[in-house]
Structure formats: C-alpha cells, structure tokens
Design a protein that fits this description.
The structure holds two protein chains of two kinds. By secondary structure, chain A is mostly helical. Chain A has one helix and no strands. Chain A has one helix at 3-32. Chain A is rod-shaped, with a radius of gyration of 14 Å. Chain B contains 19 helices and no strands. Chain B has helices at residues 3-22, 29-34, 41-52, 60-68, 73-101, 106-113, 120-152, 156-204, 208-218, 231-244, 253-260, 268-297, 308-316, 319-356, 363-387, 389-416, 422-441, 443-448, 452-472. Classes of the chains: A mainly alpha, B mainly alpha. Chains A and B meet through α1 of A and α5 and α12 of B.
Chain lengths: 34, 473
C-alpha cells in the first residue's frame, strides 16, 4: 500500500476525527448561543 | 426453518413489536411526523445514520470495493465529509429555526422563513419531494425483493410484499417514534455488521499481514486509491466524482427531519458526536468488507459483486448469527424506506391538505388521517414497484443528486446568510433540478464528472446571485 493511499484512507479518518472533536468543543458551543 | 432464516424472522418480529409499543404515543400530528420533538440526540443520530444509508451501504459499497479495490474509499471519504458538513452547517440552525417557526416539514420552514403568502415555495418544494420520494420508496421495495431472493431464495414478489408490509405496519402504528426506534436497532445492526464482519474475515485469513499480501497478489491496482488511473480520469472521474456524492446529504428531507426532531437545540452537538462515531467506524468497515471479499473469494469469482457481504457472512458465521448479519441489508433498506414513507405522508397531510388546501381538524383526526395516508402511499409505491419498474429505475437515478442539488444549497444559504431571498431559493431549487436532468442526459457532460457536483455549484450560485439581485430591489 503506497503512502499516498495511506494518506487518503487513514489521514482523512484522523482529520475527520479531529474536526469532530474541535466542532464539539469549540464551534458547536458557539452555535448554542441564542 | 433453518437457523439463518430464524435470525431474519427474529429481526422482523422485533420491528413489529416496536410498532405495537409506540402505537399509543401518537396524540398529535407533531407526534406522528416529528415525535413531538422529544427525540434525544442518540436516537436522532442513529435514526439519521440508518435512514441516510439504504441497502446500498451493505450491498453496493462492499460490492464496489470488491470490484475496484481501495479506490472505493473516494466514495467513503466523500460521504463521510458530506455527513459531517450536513450535521455541522445545517443541523444546529435548522433545529433552532424550525422550532421557532413551529415548522413540521422543509416546505413549512421555507414558507415561514420567507413569509411566502402565495404558497409558491411550498407548492414547488412539495411537488419535488412527492415525486422523488415516491419513486425512492418504490426502489426500496424492489430492493427488499432482491435481498430476500438473493439471500433466502424467496420469490422476488413475496420479498417486495414482506418488505413493504413490515415497514408500512410499524410506520402507521407509531409514526416518527416507531421509525426512529426501529432505526436505532437497524443502525446498530448495520454498525455491528460493518465492524465485526471485516475483523472476522481478516482474522480468518490469517491476520492483517496475510490479508494485505493476498490483496496485493490479486492485483497491485487494488491496493492503490487511484485504482491504477492517472490524470483526468483519476481527478475528475474517480476523486471528484466519489467525493461529490457526499454533497447530497445536505438536501435530503428525510434526513433533515431527524435534525428537526431533536429535543433541545443544545443537544445537537451530542448528535454530531454519535453520528460521526458511527460514520468513522461503519463507513471505513463497510468498504473493508469488499476488500476482505477479494482476499477470500478472489477477483471476479462472484457472479454478482453485490452479494459479497452475505456470502462472507455465511462463510464466517454460524447459521443464526449469519441470519442476523444478513438481516443487516434488509435493516438498511427498511430504515431508509420508513423515513421516506413518513416524508411523503408529511408532504400530503401537512403541506398539501392542511396548508395548501387550508383544512383544519382535531389532533386525533390528523393522526388518523396520517395513518390512512401512510397506508395509501405505501400501497401506491408498491403498485408502482410492480407495474412501473422501468419508470422507477429511470427516476431514482436522479433522486439523490436531484434532491441534494435542489434543496442543499438554498437551504444552506437560507440558514447561514441573512440576505437570502424567496426568489433566490426558488432559483436554486429550479436550477439544481434542471442541471441534474440535463447533465445526466448529455453523454459528454456525464462522462466529464458526476452531475451532482456541477448541479450543487450552479444551484448555490443561482441562489446567491438571484438573492443579491432581488434583495437590492
């Protein structure tokens, strides 16, 4: 398996995981403000 | 009865029991169409995920990975990003806004948001929803016939009647609550299948190293996310096309209703966490099922690539468990069909009868009417599935992209940009639908890139530019 393939398949998994965490902790809280 | 069939029967019985249990909880139209907006974030997220993925998720996606190898992950990444964007850009604002307006449906919301007294927005959007969802529903019933024929050897017609009958029964009994709770069970089965089956397969093949070796031996292009393609074919055909599928999530009313039903706008964040946990486990696993299939069966040895999941389940699990695992594909179909059935019911009862015709009645009358409409719509979709298969296959090709491009960009802008106007939304809906229809039917355009990508872009531009123009006047 090439590094390029690994970057897309595993890298996007990690990025989405981090994006979800950041959303929940930061942006999601801001959305809740009236 | 063999033990594989027993697993399937147990699953169907559980769905019927949920229908019975939720029957008495339906007091008003709000209860029937949105669960009285009392749905917790966990149930809402599972319901959205199970409804968002049809039988394609456990049959088509593993089949795609079995046929093309790692390049199926473009679709996985595209869908995962699309679901993330829909949950973060649309869900929180839509829940807040629809709660404020007391809107039960997307046409309800659009009409209230733009103060559209002439009902033009409601009329156009209800028509688009009714048309696409009726054929969507017919396609799901045809899918049930295929699944039960392929897995249990039942005649296709019987499979269609059983699939439609079970979905119709629990939806008419418990409305949104029955649909949401059955979705939880169905979403859980789908998650377990897509996680446990590839793990069992990789262990059965002798571990990760042996699995990758067998995959490489089957063909080096199978381990390449580019699928052996380069240049334009790779970027436009494979990457942009695969990623573009995810744009459709933002415009599917049967998924948007899940956001609207969440108990408290402050609980949407928890919904994001649950939905993304499901996506990160189930999506990556479902494609892995196809790759395990390549290592187990060899390339091209299965006559129908979409049978790779049930064939692997039979190879790795004992009878009863295999039956429950195979039920996963039926669960994926039912969890999508029930939400689509409810969206058509809401279009007929709330948008057409109550708002467009301006009829009133007691809460009990509207619940009873919704139950009758649910039966009528399910029977009509079933008759369509039997008598107009070609029409359904033709129209359903446009459904995902058509709904995604016509509702996604106008809805996104109406929630995120104050200057969006009624005319802008109308332009977006019309341009999105027309671009999908035209792009799909012009071979040179169709071969260039998947129609949802340009349709989404043009619909976004049309909503934005027409809003700027009409807002200034």
């Amino acid at each position: 398996m090439s590094g390029w393939t690994l970057f897309w398949v595993a890298g996007t998994w990690v990025l989405l995981f981090l994006a979800t965490l950041i959303y929940i902790r930061v942006y999601g809280k801001r959305e809740e403000e009236p | 009865m063999n033990s594989v069939a027993l697993g399937l029967v147990l699953y169907i019985l559980l769905m019927l029991v949920i229908g019975f249990l939720t029957y008495r909880l339906m007091g008003t139209l709000d209860d029937f169409l949105l669960g009285g907006r009392r749905i917790g974030p966990f149930v809402a997220a599972f319901s959205e995920r199970a409804s968002g993925e049809s039988a394609w998720f456990l049959l088509g996606l593993p089949g795609l990975a079995y046929a093309t190898g790692m390049s199926a992950y473009w679709t996985v990444i595209g869908c995962a990003v699309g679901i993330f964007l829909s949950w973060t850009l649309i869900a929180p604002r839509l829940r807040k806004e629809t709660g404020r307006y007391g809107a039960l449906t997307i046409p309800d919301y659009l009409e209230a948001r733009f103060g559209d007294q002439g009902h033009l927005l409601r009329g156009v959007s209800t028509f688009v929803i009714f048309l696409f969802y009726l054929v969507y529903l017919g396609a799901q019933f045809i899918g049930a016939g295929k699944i039960l024929e392929a897995t249990f050897g039942l005649p296709q017609a019987w499979g269609m009647v059983i699939g439609a009958g079970v979905v119709m029964f629990y939806t008419l009994m418990g409305g949104f609550l029955a649909v949401a709770w059955t979705d939880v069970v169905q979403g859980l089965i789908m998650l377990l299948v897509s996680v446990i089956l590839p793990i069992a397969g990789i262990l059965g093949l002798g571990g990760w190293g042996a699995f990758v070796e067998k995959l490489a031996a089957a063909g080096p292009h199978l381990l390449d996310i580019g699928g052996g393609k380069t240049g334009r074919d790779l970027i436009l055909g494979l990457a942009i096309g695969g990623l573009g599928i995810g744009l459709g999530y933002m415009g599917q009313p049967h998924l948007l209703a899940r956001y609207m039903a969440i108990r408290d706008p402050r609980e949407v964040r928890k919904g994001v966490a649950v939905a993304m946990a499901w996506v990160l486990l189930a999506y990556w696993g479902a494609a892995l099922i196809g790759l395990v299939g390549i290592a187990h069966f060899g390339v091209g040895t299965l006559a129908d690539q979409e049978t790779v999941m049930p064939k692997l389940a039979l190879a790795y699990f004992p009878g009863l468990i295999a039956g429950l695992v195979i039920s996963g594909s039926l669960a994926a179909m039912m969890s999508t069909a029930d939400s689509q059935l409810l969206v058509v019911t809401s279009a007929v009862v709330e948008d057409f009868y109550r708002k467009l015709l301006g009829r009133s009645g007691s809460p009990r009358f509207f619940v009873a009417l919704s139950r009758w409409v649910t039966v009528g719509v399910a029977l009509f979709a079933l008759i369509l599935a039997f008598s107009a298969k070609q029409l359904i296959f033709w129209l359903v090709l446009y459904a995902w992209a058509g709904l995604g491009a016509s509702f996604g960009p106008p809805l996104l802008l109406s929630l995120r940009w104050r200057r969006t106007t009624r005319e802008g939304v109308l332009a977006g809906v019309i341009v999105g639908t027309l671009t999908v229809l035209i792009w799909y039917n012009v071979p040179i355009l169709k071969g260039f890139v998947y129609e949802l990508v340009p349709a989404f872009l043009f619909s976004f531009l049309a909503t934005w530019l027409v809003s700027l123009w009409t807002g200034r006047r």
